[in-house]
DNA sequence: AATACTGCCAACCGCGGGGCA
DNA sequence: ATGCCCCGCGGTTGGCAGTAT
């Protein structure tokens, strides 16, 4: 087939963005909004490919980005979500307003992995280090799929289930610096599951039963964030306290014996 | 002071999926 | 039904800054 290159590479700049380029991009998006990234560079007078423009905007120039260090609370949210979703950085980022997938990915590889290792937890499997058992792909995938069976957010659930089915605890980046310095004792996946929680210090039981202090019966759709112990206005980006409002991320637990 | 090493992060690359003709 | 186009994602790389020797 052969996909054509995304841009005329010979006529595009690469590498770090200059202040002028940033200003042009911001000015254009302010005036026209985010639109077709492929045609944006030309329209904005930038010698960049559309992908580069999108990345620069998404990861650096967007006005709603939260700059600065991650809080401990954000750390814990990332860890919890990673235990369920694996390296689905965009999904994780979706739960952390103002943070980008790239930022979270970098932060994971440089900080959180080390943090987990210091706690004696394998950052890949979220199991105690030294444990002979690794998470069983099938079991984990099925469990995640069940937990994330979506009603109004099929993409999220499907992506999570797909990911975990394909690679339940995706290997960390093999070449990045964080991995270079920390990814030594991790297992390569596979092996039998004992049913033991992947991360014993985290309550990841999202599958059944009402959430804490919930007045919703188990069969009701349940917000993933809510099940993770988040609340709207906190790190949770949805509006779990406003039923019926848009932007919900609801997940309905499967009935007993139900499979996806 | 110079050099080597390490950590961090912005940016790039290639692929997969969805939409559309 | 098929193929193309575009977007978005995850993995990876490169360069800069800080630290150690």
List the helices and strands and how they pair.
Layout: H1 19-32, H2 40-44, H3 50-61, H4 72-85, H5 89-94, H6 101-118, H7 137-147, H8 154-166, H9 177-182, E1 222-223, H10 224-227, E2 250-251
Helix pairs in contact: 7-8
This protein binds a DNA duplex (21 and 21 nucleotides) through α3, α6 and α9.
In a nutshell, what does this entry contain?
The protein is 40% helix and 2% strand. The chain contains 10 helices and 2 strands.
The gyration radius over C-alpha positions equals 20 Å
Q: Can you give the mean pLDDT?
A: 62
Strand order of the largest sheet: 1-2
Q: Report the portion of residues in β strands.
A: under 5%
Structural class: mainly alpha
Shape: elongated
The string of secondary-structure elements, in order, is: HHHHHHHHHEHE
* Helical fraction: 25-40%
Number of distinct beta strands: 2
Unreliable spans are: 1-8, 132-223, 230-260
Largest sheet: 2 strands, antiparallel
N- to C-terminal separation?
33 Å
Q: With helices defined by DSSP (H or I, 4 residues minimum), what is the helix count? A: 10
Domain HTH myb-type: 9-61, 62-116
Region (Disordered): 168-217
Keywords: DNA-binding, Nucleus, Repeat, Repressor, Transcription, Transcription regulation
Biased composition (Low complexity): 168-187
Explain this structure to me?
One of its GO terms (molecular function) is transcription cis-regulatory region binding. There is one protein chain. By secondary structure, the chain is mainly alpha-helical. Among the domains are: 9-61, Arc Repressor Mutant, subunit A, CATH 1.10.10; 72-182, no CATH class. The protein has helices at 19-32, 40-44, 50-61, 72-85, 89-94, 101-118, 137-147, 154-166, 177-182, 224-227; strands spanning 222-223, 250-251. Strands 1-2 form a two-stranded antiparallel sheet. Helix 7 (137-147) runs antiparallel to helix 8 (154-166). Residues 1-8, 132-223 and 230-260 have low confidence and may be disordered. The protein binds a DNA duplex (21 and 21 nucleotides) through residues 1, 3-4, 6, 14-17, 36-38, 50-52, 54-56, 58-60, 87-90, 101-103, 105-107, 109-111, 159, 170, 173-178, 180-181.
């Amino acid at each position: 087939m052969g996909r054509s290159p995304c841009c005329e590479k010979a006529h595009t700049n690469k590498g770090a963005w200059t202040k002028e380029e940033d200003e042009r991009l911001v000015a254009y998006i302010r005036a026209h909004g985010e639109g077709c990234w492929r045609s944006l560079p030309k329209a904005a007078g930038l010698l960049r490919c559309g992908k580069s423009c999108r990345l620069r905007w998404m990861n650096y120039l967007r006005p709603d980005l939260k700059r600065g260090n991650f809080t401990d609370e954000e750390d814990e949210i990332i860890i919890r979500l990673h235990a369920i979703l694996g390296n689905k950085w965009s999904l994780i980022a979706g739960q952390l307003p103002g943070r980008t997938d790239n930022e979270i990915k970098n932060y994971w590889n440089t900080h959180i992995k080390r943090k987990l290792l210091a706690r004696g937890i394998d950052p890949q499997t979220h199991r105690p280090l030294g444990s002979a058992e690794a998470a069983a792909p099938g079991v984990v995938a099925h469990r995640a799929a069940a937990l994330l069976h979506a009603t109004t957010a099929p993409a999220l659930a499907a992506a999570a289930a797909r990911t975990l089915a394909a690679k339940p605890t995706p290997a960390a980046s093999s070449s990045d610096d964080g991995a270079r310095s920390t990814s030594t004792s991790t297992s390569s996946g596979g092996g039998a599951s004992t049913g033991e929680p992947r991360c014993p210090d985290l309550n990841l039981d999202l599958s059944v039963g009402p959430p804490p202090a919930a007045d919703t019966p188990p069969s009701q759709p349940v917000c993933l964030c809510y099940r993770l112990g988040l609340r709207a206005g906190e790190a949770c980006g949805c509006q779990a306290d406003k039923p019926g409002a848009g932007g919900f991320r609801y997940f309905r637990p499967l009935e007993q014996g139900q499979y996806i």
